[in-house]
Amino acid sequence: MKQILKNFIVIEGIDGAGTTTQSKLLAKFLEKEGKKVFLTQEPTDSEIGKLIRKVLSGKCEIDPRSLSLLFSSDRAEHLYGKGGVIEHMENGFYVISDRYFQSSIAYQGLSVEKSFVIETNPFPFPEYYIFLDVEVDMALERIGKRGGEKEIFEKKEILEKVRKNYISELGRIPTETRLMRISGEKGIEETHSEILSLFT
Ligand code: TYD
Fold it and tell me: Does 43 sit in the ligand 1 pocket, CB within 6 Å?
């Protein structure tokens, strides 16, 4: 049986799907309910995370397998390291992570053998997995409005494939994980309310 981490909530989706917005809204809601909440994200702010961001910006080019392993290594530290996910869980926190290993399967799976990505991500599944399923055109429109520098994956052809990978990977989510797939055509508030139905 696959290991499941209780009170661990993961929000996933392609760039521009709104994972950050929904993670923050959910954190606020759970805090108002009196729960202790640790809101976190991948890539993290660690030194490994900083190196990943450099690669994502296009400033530093490395082999896709190396990038895949950097994400796994950042994740291992995020999960097991000091002040990480597991430590917070043991201290009674709900942990919300904006992205987790499904991102590696969806994104790194484009340029690296899927079996390589899966085998190098031997991490427990979350209790809740929320997938924000947004059409690529809508996601790109949101990214455009946000402004700032584009990252290496923020292109239509790439995001189409990433979305397909996310969808085909839904089948690997264990039945013990509470899975919610939300169509991204909905607005921020409607999506938020749908997410809350998992917790009320
Ligand atoms: P993103 O959530 O878009 O961060 P920000 O909004 O701060 O830029 O994540 C950065 C990018 O990293 C995004 O394109 C997805 C990618 N990514 C992977 O390719 N693999 C992974 O394992 C993770 C966690 C993210």
Answer: yes
Instruction: Quote the ligand 1 centre to 129 CA distance (angstroms).
Output: 17
Q: Which class in CATH covers the domain with range 4-148+165-184?
A: alpha beta
Predicted structure pTM score: 0.97
- 153 in ligand 1 pocket by Cβ < 6 Å? yes
Domain ranges across the chain: 4-148+165-184
pLDDT digits (tens, 9 = 90+) for 12-62: 999 999 999 999 999 999 999 999 999 999 999 999 999 999 999 999 999
Give the DSSP per-residue string, the chain: ---EEEEEEEEE-STTS-HHHHHHHHHHHHHHTT--EEEEESS-SSHHHHHHHHHHTTSS---HHHHHHHHHHHHHHHHHSTTSHHHHHHTT-EEEEE--HHHHHHHGGGTS-HHHHHHT---PEEEEEEEEE--HHHHHHHHHHH-SPPPTT-SHHHHHHHHHHHHHHGGGS-TTSEEEEEETTS-HHHHHHHHHTTT-
Q: How far is the CA of 43 from the centre of ligand 1 (A)?
A: 6
* pLDDT over 90 (residue 87): yes
